[in-house]
Design brief:
Blueprint (H helix, E strand, L loop, with lengths): L2 H23 L4 H4 L9 H23 L14 H10 L21 H20 L7 E3 L7 E3 H28 L1
Helix pairs in contact: 1-5, 1-6, 3-5, 3-6, 4-6
C-alpha cells in the first residue's frame, strides 16, 4: 500500500470511528456510560484507554514528521514491531493491556468523549500533514523505547486499535442500554 492510500484510509476510518462511537453512546445515562460490562471495562473506560494509548503515538508521529524526508512513492513497509503491534491490536486479538494504559477506576463524565474526539481531530490533522512524507522514517515506540517502528506503523496501529475498541464501545453500549 502506498503512503497516500494508508493516510487517506486512516482519515476516512477516523471519521467513521467517531460517527459510530457517538451513535453508540447516544442516550446512555451517566450510570450506563460508566457501567462495567460482564467484568470488563465500561464504555467510559474504553474511551479513556483510547486517549491514553493514542496520545503518545501522535506525539511520536508529530516529532518524527519534523525529521522525515519526502515520500519516494514506494510501498509502506511495516517493521517487525509494527506488524506485531498491528496484529496485537486487531479486533480478534487477545493482547493483554499494559498497566500504564489501564484507565483508573473512576466514574468518567462524558467529557472523556470530547477528549477522545480531540485526539481523533489531531490524528486526522497529522495524517493530512504526513502526506508527501516518507512513512518509513524510523521512530521509537513511545511506550517501549527499545522498540523501533516507523511512521506508517504508528498510523496503522492507531487505526486498527481504534477499530477494535469502537466495536467494544458499540457492544458494551448496547448491553448497558438493555440493563
Amino acid at each position: 500500500m502506498k503512503a497516500e492510500e494508508l493516510l487517506a484510509g486512516v482519515v476516512a476510518r477516523s471519521g467513521e470511528h467517531e460517527s459510530r462511537a457517538i451513535a453508540a453512546i447516544e442516550g446512555l445515562t451517566d450510570a450506563q456510560f460508566n457501567m462495567p460490562i460482564d467484568g470488563e471495562w465500561s464504555v467510559a473506560k474504553v474511551f479513556k484507554h483510547l486517549c491514553l494509548a493514542d496520545g503518545p503515538y501522535l506525539d511520536a508521529a508529530e516529532s518524527a514528521l519534523e525529521k522525515a524526508g519526502a515520500d519516494k512513492g514506494g510501498e509502506v513497509k511495516h517493521t517487525l514491531v509494527g506488524k506485531l503491534l498491528i496484529r496485537g491490536s486487531a479486533k480478534k486479538a487477545n493482547t493483554p493491556v499494559p498497566n500504564f494504559l489501564i484507565p483508573e477506576d473512576l466514574d468518567y463524565s462524558k467529557d472523556i468523549v470530547d477528549e477522545w474526539q480531540a485526539v481523533k481531530v489531531r490524528l486526522r490533522e497529522l495524517s493530512e500533514r504526513a502526506k508527501g512524507y516518507d512513512l518509513s522514517h524510523g521512530v521509537r515506540n513511545p511506550f517501549i523505547k527499545m522498540f523501533r517502528m516507523n511512521l506508517g506503523d504508528l498510523f496503522a496501529v492507531i487505526d486498527v486499535h481504534t477499530e477494535r475498541h469502537i466495536c467494544q464501545i458499540e457492544e458494551r453500549a448496547k448491553i448497558a442500554r438493555a440493563k
